[in-house]
Amino acid sequence: MSAYPMSQQTTVRILVRRFRPFFLPAIVITIAIVLAAAFLLPLVQQVISMQDELRAKQERIRILSTNLDTLTALDANELDRFVLLARNALPEEKDYVGILDAISDASVVSSVSVGDYDIQVGDIRQSTGDQKTLQISLNISGNVTSIAAFTSNLQKRLPLADVIEVRMNNQTTANVVVQFFFAPIGRLSNDPGIALPVIGPRQREILTLLSDHSQTLR
Amino acid sequence: MSNDINLFAGRRQSLEALRSQVRIVRITAVASLVSVGVAMAIMYALLRLSPMDALIAQEQVLIDNLGLLREKGGKVLLLADRMRGIDTILNSQGDIGETIGLFVRSLPSGVRVDTLALNKKTFTVSLSSPSLGPLQQVIDNKDAMIRDTKRFKKTTISSVIYDPIQQRYIVGIESEVL
Q: The domain spanning residue A97 has which CATH number?
């Protein structure tokens, strides 16, 4: 005996007969949805991700190409000269020889005599940025004009220096406190895909200035 | 006779509506299946026809060429590293010597610099002269320097004394350095 009463069986049969034409399209639509979810969406994601990778790759190739052009166009001798100049101006570590040369050169040009000097080796200060400074206190003999010339000349030599104090206690001697800069080499990237810095107009202007400083006496 | 009780006409309308619905559903089903198929084919073609392999080959060629210029590249990076520091130093560098020179050049004859102290913030000087006239000139010149050179901010005359032994007037001047 059936679990459903006769009237209910009749209703189901009528509904099945009425909606039978929709069964096949419904199955097809379901298959399409399943296909879209299982295969099409991952494919779309792959394509989008591939487009991003392509853009990144094209950008990297553009940078590599620019780097290659930059390096090819650079004159090796000029680059060596620039590097030497820059390293003389801002040595990686305390350049005692360069410092003493600069003091000696500036004193000769300014007609002052440098007496004793006190290099505060232990007093290495962190200046602005990554630069460190070595402070030196100099006792010099000369008149006020020559002392002014000495301090100006000292700042126009390599390694780079900054006179931070001048104290004349009489008309012929002065104490000059000067700090010389040095800076360890920062982290240099090995990745050829990073855009190489360009030697622009500002850098060339600085290099010309440094070149003048290096040729002031020598 | 009323149309409202014409059962045959009502059934015929109902059948036609059903057929129309079936047609729409069938078209939708076919269209969705075709759309999914076409979209998958396009996506697959896009993946297969990607220029990635050619780009990777081009990248490798460039990297190989750059490898030959590695030393030069290292020097460029080193130079840039130094230049950053040098630029910072040059921007912060003062010119004490130039300031002293400027001041000394402004002194009238007969005025002597007895003591002088200059740092990044203050300028203190003690001047002497046999008469007050040149010292007045110094103060006027200092006033002009404040206006013209923008090296000093404020000037104070800290003392004016007469030294009977040396027979000289001594003036102490303090300025704030810009």
A: 3.30.70.60
In terms of C-beta density within 10 A (0-12 exposed, 13-18 middle, 19 or more buried), how is residue B165 classed? exposed
Q: What are phi and psi of B50, to 5 degrees?
A: -65, 140
Domain positions in chain B are 1-50, 52-92, 106-177
SS3 A166: strand
Q: A131 and A56, same structural domain? A: no
DSSP for A105-128? HHHHHHT-EEEEEEEEEEEEEE-S
Chain A stretch 75-114, residues whose beta carbon is closer than 8 A to a beta carbon of chain B: 76, 79-80, 82-83, 86-87, 89-90
Looking at the structure, give the CATH architecture of the domain made up of residues B106-177: 2-Layer Sandwich (3.30)
Total CB pairs under 8 A between chain A and B? 233
218 residues of chain A, pLDDT tens digit each = 455 566 777 888 888 887 888 899 999 999 999 999 999 999 999 999 999 999 999 999 999 999 999 999 999 999 999 999 999 999 999 888 999 999 999 999 988 888 766 666 555 565 556 788 888 899 999 888 899 999 999 998 989 999 999 999 888 889 999 999 999 988 888 788 888 888 888 889 999 999 888 875 44
- The pTM for the full model equals 0.76
Q: Please indicate whether, in this complex, the C-beta atoms of B97 and A150 are within 8 angstroms of each other.
A: yes
When CB atoms are compared, the residue of A155, A169, A183 closest to B93 is A155
Residue A115: which domain range?
90-186+201-216
- ipTM value: 0.80
Q: Tell whether A44 and A122 lie within a shared domain.
A: no
Give the whole-angstrom CA distance, residue B84 versus residue B86.
Answer: 6
